[in-house]
Specification:
binds adenosine-5'-triphosphate; Alpha-Beta Plaits; six-stranded mixed sheet
Length: 303
């Protein structure tokens, strides 16, 4: 069992601050690193994998520093976001070459074991260039697992996958964690993280914004103010009814209808149809106006 520890970690590229004072601990099981594009997830993962030096702070595993410490590299496997660039190699050749790079005592046996773990033994003699997206992800995973590390880091592993490949990879990641590994994967898709991770760390604009199980993160998200765009048979009267209730903080009459800011999501969504019916107003359209992940993230940052 291994534990990754980040203490006040920052990383900058010239004057771009990619990661800013992040402290977190990642233990066994599946952890999701959630954040919008450009939040600093890859930078964090590369520092945890020993590929990148922190500009400030410490990144460690089981009490040992990771950067420039080859003795701990055996404990970490990293599956990068980029496609494997060795399309001319067969899957087996690629995984074997990784086993040799790790100077394993029996690289061929290690490669077979890793190929078996990701269920790629049958397709292992085909060139990587002929693989589907899901197969490429599996072969990258086999190469990251060839030295049987207790820590597995995956950068945006589901990008570009179809739903079936996504489910297969989720099963595989769960299996890796069930075997006692510390597995961390990054994603910008909340539902993906929710389905797979038992613990979530949220990163926004380089900063650590929230942490907890998916219920805690969901709660943060439903507790935030919600904007709704509403059209009805009598917008002016509906505005007066809504603003009289505590669940609503603001109502604006626009050229197309109403913009409503609800502060109590559950109460508001049950009040709205009731209030409209009582006042004999017909609701023509109710749509969430700010459900993008970006707006959820910006709320978390501000809180
Ligand atoms: N080598 C680099 N030189 C300069 N800036 C960089 C470099 N690598 C990353 N950045 C910047 O650092 C910030 C964080 O990037 P990073 O790739 O870590 O984010 P991310 O959350 O992984 O995003 P994505 O999912 O889009 O890859 C971004 O503003 C990015 O432009």
């Amino acid at each position: 069992m291994s534990v990754l520890e980040l203490r006040d970690v920052s990383r900058w590229y010239g004057n771009v601050v990619a990661v800013n004072g992040v402290t977190m601990t990642v233990g066994p099981g599946v952890t999701g690193l959630l954040g919008p594009n450009g939040a600093g997830k890859s930078t964090l993962i590369h520092m945890m994998g020993g590929f990148l030096a922190p500009s400030n702070g410490q990144v460690g595993i089981d009490g040992q520093r990771i950067w420039k410490n080859p003795s701990v590299y055996r404990h970490i496997g990293l599956v990068p976001e980029r496609e494997a660039a060795y399309d001319f190699l067969s899957g087996r050749q690629f995984v074997r070459s990784m086993a040799k790079l790790h100077k394993l005592s029996d690289p061929d046996a290690a490669a077979e074991r890793a190929l078996g773990m990701v269920e790629m033994a049958a397709a292992a003699d085909r060139a990587i260039g002929t693989y589907s997206k899901g197969m490429k992800q599996r072969i990258k995973m086999a190469s990251a697992l060839v030295h049987d590390p207790p820590v597995l880091l995956l950068d945006e592993p589901f990008n570009g996958m179809d739903p079936r490949q996504r489910l297969q990879l989720m099963d595989l990641i769960r299996k890796m964690a069930a075997e006692g590994r510390t597995v961390l994967f990054s994603s910008h898709i909340l539902e993906e993280v929710e389905r797979l991770a038992h613990h979530i760390e949220v990163i926004i604009a380089g900063r650590h914004a929230a942490s907890g199980d998916f219920r805690a993160i969901r709660r943060l998200m439903t507790d935030r103010p919600h904007m709704f765009a509403i059209r009805s048979s009598d917008d002016r009267r509906l505005a007066a009814v809504l603003i009289a209730d505590d669940s609503t903080r603001g109502v604006e009459l626009t050229s197309t209808g109403l913009q409503v800011e609800a502060v109590d999501f559950l109460r508001f969504t049950s009040l709205l149809p009731q209030a409209a019916r009582t006042a004999d107003i017909r609701l023509l359209e109710v749509s969430p106006a700010d459900e993008s992940l970006e707006s959820v993230f910006s709320y978390l940052v501000a809180s």
